[in-house]
């Protein structure tokens, strides 16, 4: 890869991917609405609010690919979702079309399907059942990507990331955990296959209790190497089992599904 844009580069995953992707692209263009000052060899930085289309157009010009992580990353006010995820993702896709960027890694989320029960096994064609306005905004991003592929040929990986952090920290994450290394490998696969089209991938490591089936994305050749099994004893000891009828245990999205509306008082 010559020049790759990484949005949301100041965030948790942005920082982790900067480390894991070091040396992968000739130039990694970091972007965020907050400043980044610790630039490494091969990195440049452009501050940009994703809600500002002219700024996003300048950002995207000259890039070969985009890893789009930026935006509101949990449930939040409609305004922050509107600016970061609805306008922001539209701006990325429209700028990509105008500047002929061929491929985008879109950080979708498991919360696009978070209202499915934990007994349901999902694949790429399972219906969306968002568990939050945040999840709805990721569904919008996925549909937008589909439209930009069908009409304009912009290819995308719609990666429904589970829980990407150094290790799983609760029982739910024994199913949803994605290691940072497996995520970085997935990014590399997405940009190296000959044809990507518009492909849904569940972003989870090789976890024994997974709810998700990635066989429709087998052609990517992505083989996650890590597994939550390694942390199972530690997680079970530190996360006491709730009453098994507790609604938070019913849904794949966990507390995103059981929380009330973000702006309600209680
Ligand atoms: P984060 O909240 O740590 O990082 C998001 C970054 O986006 C922040 O640095 C923030 O400043 C930036 N941002 C927010 N609104 C912006 C705007 N309007 N303009 C420009 N920049 C803006 O989130 P994290 O954990 O790094 O997640 C990255 C992406 O992956 C997000 O899109 C999130 O929805 C998705 N994801 C992450 C998961 C995880 O386990 N960390 C799980 C599922 C999805
Ligand atoms: C997400 O979509 C969030 O960005 C992240 O902060 C976690 O909450 C993750 O899902 C999860 O479901 O664990």
From TrEMBL:
<dbReference type="Pfam" id="PF01370">
    <property type="entry name" value="Epimerase"/>
</dbReference>
<dbReference type="InterPro" id="IPR001509">
    <property type="entry name" value="Epimerase_deHydtase"/>
</dbReference>
<dbReference type="InterPro" id="IPR036291">
    <property type="entry name" value="NAD(P)-bd_dom_sf"/>
</dbReference>
<keyword id="KW-0560">Oxidoreductase</keyword>
<dbReference type="GO" id="GO:0016491">
    <property type="term" value="F:oxidoreductase activity"/>
</dbReference>
<comment type="similarity">
    <text>Belongs to the NAD(P)-dependent epimerase/dehydratase family.</text>
</comment>
<feature type="domain" description="NAD-dependent epimerase/dehydratase">
    <location>
        <begin position="4"/>
        <end position="162"/>
    </location>
</feature>
<keyword id="KW-0520">NAD</keyword>
<protein>
    <submittedName>
        <fullName>NAD-dependent epimerase/dehydratase</fullName>
    </submittedName>
</protein>
């Amino acid at each position: 890869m010559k020049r790759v844009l990484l949005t949301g580069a100041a965030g948790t995953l942005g920082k982790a991917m900067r480390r894991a992707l070091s040396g992968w692209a000739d130039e990694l263009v970091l972007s965020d609405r907050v400043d980044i000052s610790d630039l490494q060899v091969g990195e440049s930085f452009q501050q940009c609010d994703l809600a500002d289309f002219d700024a996003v157009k300048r950002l995207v010009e000259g890039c070969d690919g985009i890893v789009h992580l930026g935006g509101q990353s949990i449930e939040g006010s409609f305004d922050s979702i509107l600016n970061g995820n609805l306008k922001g993702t539209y701006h990325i896709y429209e700028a990509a079309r105008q500047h002929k960027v061929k491929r985008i890694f879109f950080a979708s989320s498991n919360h696009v399907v978070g209202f499915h029960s934990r007994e349901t096994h999902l694949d790429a064609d399972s219906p969306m059942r968002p568990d939050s306005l945040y999840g709805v905004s990721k569904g919008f991003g996925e549909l937008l990507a589909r439209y930009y592929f069908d009409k304009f040929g912009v290819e995308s990986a719609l990666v429904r990331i589970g829980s990407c952090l150094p290790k799983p920290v609760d029982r739910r994450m024994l199913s949803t955990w994605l290691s940072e290394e497996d995520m970085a490998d997935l990014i590399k696969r997405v940009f190296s296959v000959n044809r990507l089209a518009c492909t849904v991938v569940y972003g989870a490591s090789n976890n024994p209790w997974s709810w998700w089936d990635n066989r429709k994305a087998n052609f990517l050749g992505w083989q996650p190497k890590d597994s939550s099994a390694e942390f199972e004893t530690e997680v079970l000891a530190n996360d006491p089992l709730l009453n098994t009828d507790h609604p938070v245990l019913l849904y794949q999205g966990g507390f995103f599904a059981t929380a009330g509306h973000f702006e309600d008082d209680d």
